[in-house]
Amino acid sequence: MKIPPPVKVSQDKIIFDVSEIEAILQAPPMDVKPFEPRSVLLKNREGETKTMLVREAKLEEAVPLLKIIRERFLQEENLDEVKDFYDIVGARVYAEILGWYRHRLKDPYTLVGLCDGELTGFANGRLMNEEINISLHTMAFDRGFRAEAAMYFIKCQYCFDDLGQDEFWSTFESYNGWKRWGFGMAQPSYPWPDLQHELGGARVYYITKKYWETSIKNYLTQMHDIRVDREVSEELLAKNEVLRLPVE
Question: How far is C-alpha 129 from the chain's CA centre?
């Protein structure tokens, strides 16, 4: 779009350094407390157990994460064969990881759950502001061990116990997600369409700090007999220093 200047100018062209433009396009980050690693003992119905370390993903780990999302969720050519909304979930998670990697997502956090280095769980979100935490997606790559439950709960824990925020906002693309977290945690929702979640303008389900303290804080133990341990040994950290993608 061009409009003639209403006054004489000394320069017809003004050239920008792209680093000056980047300062505008890339929002300045908030001063956010880093995520501290923690562990959970996962169990399946057969009684098998394994320890999952949950830590913040490293920026360079975005590349293998993009790879597994692309291979697992974005290869189905026949849309009629897709189940449980994995295609739209995969596409959105891919874009979110890429947004984090390319610095085009405001104040994101990306968490990985690792068992002896192997990717077992994934969770991400971002900070809208100092008060509100936006949950984006949660995934399990080893089904049956309730890794997804642990990852979602740990996002809530990070919001309230670590960052001291007031609200945690979610929405749900699949029936299973809504059943487990929206209904399962008895989350209320804001009036729609007055308030909409950024994922497709869907309904906002929320947890307040008071509700977290009085009810949800014991959800993981009560419903799944899973406890989060904040005391993490150097040995466990070393075992999970390098992320490995699951073969199957």
Answer: 16
Picking from 177, 176, 172, the residue whose alpha carbon sits closest to that of residue 203 is: 172
pLDDT at position 160 is: 97
Whole-angstrom Cα distance, residue 78 to residue 92?
19
**Contact by Cβ (8 Å): 197, 167:** no
Strand partners, 113: 54, 121
| Structural contact between residues 57 and 97, judged by C-beta atoms closer than 8 angstroms | no
pLDDT digits (tens, 9 = 90+) for 19-62: 999 988 987 899 999 999 999 999 888 888 999 999 999 999 99
Best CA proximity match to 32, nearest among 118, 106, 85:
106
Token digits of residue 30: 């908030």
**b or e along 102-132 (b: 16 or more beta carbons within 10 Å of the residue's beta carbon)?**
eeebbbbbbbbbbbeebbbbbbbbbbeeeeb
The domain defined by 35-239 folds into Aminopeptidase (3.40.630)
Domain extent listing, the chain: 35-239
Q: At what angle do helices 62-73 and 86-101 cross, to 10 degrees?
A: 160
